[in-house]
Specification:
200 residues; mainly alpha; 3 strands; elongated
């Protein structure tokens, strides 16, 4: 590896870490806001929907889901503090897990923040492998303007926090739809008529 190549790799890693820190901060804040708003939204929906549709409201399910949201928010805060103090490609797996957990809540703000976490995890893992490649045509990325990354063939600027492979995006939305349909089934059907797996 030449000295010039090593210098470019360092700049690429610095750009990914810088953008990853920015995304980690904003996504963690979205998780915190979602955790705070979840009990308010749940109570508001219960009060609004019950008189109209006689939707059942199970406080135990609500408490379990809010505890789940609080747990992943705490995990996000810990990962954010870690990338802020010691950025490394090894944190990529934690970002990917946070992305999946965010999609798994079935809530819009968690899912949006989860996209940022998953994308950052993808790019951190690319840094760990030693060469960042465009997720469209698999060509090596280059530093563009000293502050951005761009594909050498399609000239597309890559954004850490929003660019992920198409397969990952489809999988994330499938998890989101399954999570959301669980909420819908709970509201439509009485809780005791759902299969045990969906009840709690």
């Amino acid at each position: 590896m030449s000295v010039a190549q090593s210098g470019e790799d360092d700049v690429v890693a610095r750009i990914v870490y810088r953008d990853g820190l920015r995304v980690a901060k904003s996504s963690t804040l979205l998780y915190i806001v979602s955790t705070i708003l979840a009990p308010i939204a749940t109570l508001g929906l219960a009060l609004f929907l019950y008189p109209l549709f006689r939707v059942s409201f199970d406080p135990l399910v609500s408490i379990v889901l809010e505890a789940y949201g609080a747990a992943i928010t705490l995990y996000a805060v810990l990962v954010y503090l870690r990338i802020r103090s010691h950025p490394s490609p090894g944190l990529g797996k934690h970002f990917i897990i946070l992305g999946l957990l965010g999609f798994g809540t079935g809530a819009v703000l968690y899912a949006y923040a989860g996209l940022g976490f998953a994308s950052t995890g993808y790019w951190l893992r690319q840094v760990g492998r030693g060469s960042l490649k465009c997720n469209r045509d698999k060509n090596v990325l280059a530093v563009y303007g000293g502050e951005s990354l761009a594909c050498r063939t399609c000239s597309r600027v890559v954004k850490v926090g929003s660019d992920i492979p198409q397969g990952w995006r489809k999988s994330g939305f499938a998890v989101l739809i399954l999570s959301f349909s669980r909420y819908a089934l709970e509201g439509i059907l009485p809780t005791n008529s759902l299969p045990i797996v969906l009840q709690y």
